[in-house]
Amino acid sequence: VQLQASGGGLVQAGGPLRLSCTASGITFSNYGVGWFRQAPGKEREFVAGMNWSGYNTWFADSVAGRFTMSRANAENTVFLQMSTLKPEDTAVYYCAAQKYYGDVRAETTYDYWGQGTQVTVSS
Known about the structure:
The chain is built from no helices and eleven strands. The protein is 0% helix and 50% strand.
């Protein structure tokens, strides 16, 4: 099983960016998916999560209203659309897959993790 996160880069504050997470070895539509991030010197934190059906999503307070999640089941891919980016959004972003229903905010409920993609927001 492999999760490939991509789409990171350098963006100016206020701009958008879309991250992708593509899975191989599993059928993504059977899994809950989460996005986490880790900024330099800080612990990894929950950003967003979606249940297996895609009907329910959850967002950290810090990104609610600015970030959205979506699925492209035919591509076995999940997206994190980020808008109105702030310098404090700068971090390495990780996607993760959750086989059994659990608290999407808890890292321990995820079974597979991607390698991370760097997002840098300049002021």
